[in-house]
Design a protein that fits this description.
Elements: E1 15-18, H1 25-32, E2 37-40, H2 44-52, H3 57-62, E3 69-73, H4 81-89, E4 96-101, H5 105-109, E5 120-123, H6 137-143, H7 147-150, H8 155-160, H9 162-172, H10 180-192, E6 196-197, H11 200-207, H12 211-223, E7 227-230, E8 246-249, H13 252-258, H14 267-290, E9 295-300, E10 306-313, E11 316-322, H15 334-342, E12 347-352, E13 358-360, E14 363-367, H16 368-374
Parallel strand pairs: 1-4, 1-5, 2-3, 3-4, 11-12, 12-14
Antiparallel strand pairs: 6-8, 7-8, 9-10, 10-11, 13-14
Helix pairs in contact: 6-13, 10-11, 11-12, 13-14
Length: 385
Amino acid sequence: MEVISRFFEIPDGSCFLFGPRGTGKSTWLRHQLPDALYLDLLDPELYRRLAARPERLHDLLAGSPDAGTVVVDEIQRVPDLLTVIHSVLEGSRPRRFIMTGSSARKLRRGGVDLLGGRASHRTLHPFMAAEMPEFELPEALQLGLVPLVRGSSSPADALAGYANLYLEQEVQAEGLTRNIGAFVRFLEAISLSHGSPLNVAAVARECEVERKVVAGYAGILEDLLLAFRVPVFRRRARRRTVARDKLYLFDAGVFRSLRPRGPLDAPAEIDGQALEGLVAQHLRAWAAYSQDGARLFYWRTPAGTEVDFVLYGEAGLHAIEVKNARRIGPGDLRPLRAFRSDYPEADAALLYRGDVRERIGGIWLLPVADFLRGLRPGASTLPRE
C-alpha cells in the first residue's frame, strides 16, 4: 500500500498523538518507525491483559530490549497504563513512548497521570492539499480529506459509514450518552450550524432536548476530535464584537455526510459551508504543524460585518475571507477593508472559486484551490508583496 508523505513530524521525545479515527496515525507511525514496539489496544486479547494488570507492560518491554521507541495505540482505552509509562520514563532505561488516541475525554476526566509534562501533545489532521499527489477541489468538497475515506476502494461508502463508526465504537461503546437517538438528531442539527456561531438554545429546540444536553453533546464532539471551535478575535479591539464561538466539523466530507439535504436545502448554501470548512481545517492543520503558536480566530461585529478567519501568531496577522463564487464584486471586499481599518498591519486575502489572481487595494484575490495547494507548514499563508 502506498503511504502518502505527511507534514507531521514525530518529536524526538515522548508524545501524545491525538487525531480522529481514520486520520492515519497508526499507518504513518508504522511507516516511519518500523523498528518500534507496537501495542495496539484495539486488539481484544492485549486490551484484556493490560486492562486487568497494567504493570504487565514491564514484561512486554523486557521482551523487546532493543526497541527504543514504544507505540501505544488508543491509550485512552487503558488510562492506568500511563502510571506505568511514567515509572519507565523515570527509570534507569527510559524509552520513547508515542501514545496515540482518538479521544482525550477519558484521559482528561479520569484524573490520570499525564506524565507530568514528560510528553508533548501533537495532533494529526486529515490530509492537507499539498500532501496529496493529486488534489482536486470538487472532489475534496464532496469526499473530504480523511485518509481512511480517500484510501478506500469505495470512498463514498466509507464516508457514509464514518459517522456510524464513531457512534458505535466511541459514543455507544464508551457510554458517553444514554440516548443515542437524541445524539444522532444532534449531529444532524449541528451540521446545519457548521461554520456558524454556535447557538445552543436553537440547536436544543431542533433536537427537542435541554440546553445543557446540547452543551454536553458539543463537548463530546470536541473530545472525540470530530469538531473544533473558532473563537472571536478581540485583541486591541476598536469596536464591539460578538461573543459566540463558531463550531466546525473537522472535515468537509464528514460535514457533507451528516448534513440533511432536501427540497429546501440550496446546493449553493451547502457548497459554501463545505468550502469554508475545508479552508478552516487546512488553516488549523497549518497552525498545528508549523509549531509557531499561531491561533485561528474569526471576526464579527454585532452589525454583521464578518471576516471568516483571522490567523494570529509569530508569523503575523492574516485576515482571510472565503467566497463560493467565481466572480467577486466590490461589496465582497468590504469586511476585509473594515478589518484592515481596525488592524492596518494585517495582510488580507479573499479566496474564491475563480481562476484569476489579483491584488486590489492591498487585498489579495486568490483562487482557493491554488491557495490550498500552496499552504505548507513553516511557510507564509499569504503571498509576499
